[in-house]
Amino acid sequence: MKLLFLNSIDRATYGGMEEWIRLVASGLRKRGHGITVAGRQDSAFLRRLGASDSQLELLPLKISGDFNPATISAIHSAIEQRRIDAVLVNFNKDLRLGGLAARWSGDARIIWSIGLDITRDSIVHRWLTPKLADAIIVPSESLKRQITRHGYLETDVIEVIPIGIPDTSALSGNAEVRARIRSAVGLPEDAIIAVTSGRFVEQKGHRFLLEAISALAERISSLYFLWLGSGPLENELRIRVDELGLTSRVIFAGMLDSVDEHLAASDLMIHPSIEEPFGIAILEGMRAGLPVVASDVGGIPEVVDNRCAQLVPPRDSTALVEAVAGLASNAQSRLRMGMHARERFLSEFSVETMFDRIERCVSGVVHGERRAG
């Protein structure tokens, strides 16, 4: 198949959806599909894709309004010249620009892939979205329920395809990595490390985790908390950690190019989100063989099961304390649950499994099994 990916993210930003495109575009190219990726001129998105896979065809575009005729014409020309079978789009802007260009071409199908609920209950959305999207890919049943709540999207055009990530199993259980990272962050080799990975934003629930840490620090002297990431709440959280006298127990490791080594040096993962459509950070923890304590919210219950994770109500610091304390105090439980986490990752969330599911979905759309009204 010949596929065009379109993503209009601003020039400076590169996030989870852009990383998904990088993985999928490169993976499908290696499976023999013709792949073109379109984005803004001089964007970090296109630069990263080009650096990652020099054989991907990149198409820089001038992107402005949602219905810009010049942009639609440029996309239409790309579809016609390359005989594109399907256009995979992300944002609402992409759906309109790519969708109108595809409808103009007459043959190319449109697949809308979203990781968050960006639907709106407006006249434009109600009228245009069902006419443009031949199929919609979401990572969880939870998000599928969210985007159908307005009533204008049919469930049979929505395909749930869980996100997959590449395997990095070589680091799991690596004693040298474990010792080196612990030394680098200033923690003893015999410390029990609970890692949390994610942006410092309200929906990730760090405030409630801090409430739990205050109690846990008193109960378990060997328990430390490693926080990976950055974000707008970082300074506020650092101040609060200092106020609580927890600076020696909560380690801010910053935004890392790769979290793999820090996860390999940890003993369990805490994911206290109050909103979460899927939870890629949890997948990374499962890949590293970590047992998980997470909020019972959004798509998280679809990522984990009770053999590899303990779910607690969101915003409930008391429940967090009990779940984390139970795992921190029982090395055998951590080992057993970590093994199940790793097994579940390999069977359900490997990147190759994701590629298989996307290929089947796109092929079905291209061959006429789905078509927007």
TrEMBL record:
Quote the Gene3D superfamilies the UniProt record gives. Answer: Glycogen Phosphorylase B
Signal peptide boundaries = none
A molecular function GO annotation:
glycosyltransferase activity
Where's the Glycosyl transferase family domain?
178-344
- Tell me the domain of life: Bacteria
Q: Which residues form the Glycosyltransferase subfamily 4-like N-terminal domain?
A: 14-166
**SUPFAM superfamilies assigned:** UDP-Glycosyltransferase/glycogen phosphorylase
Q: What is this protein called?
A: Glycosyltransferase family 1 protein
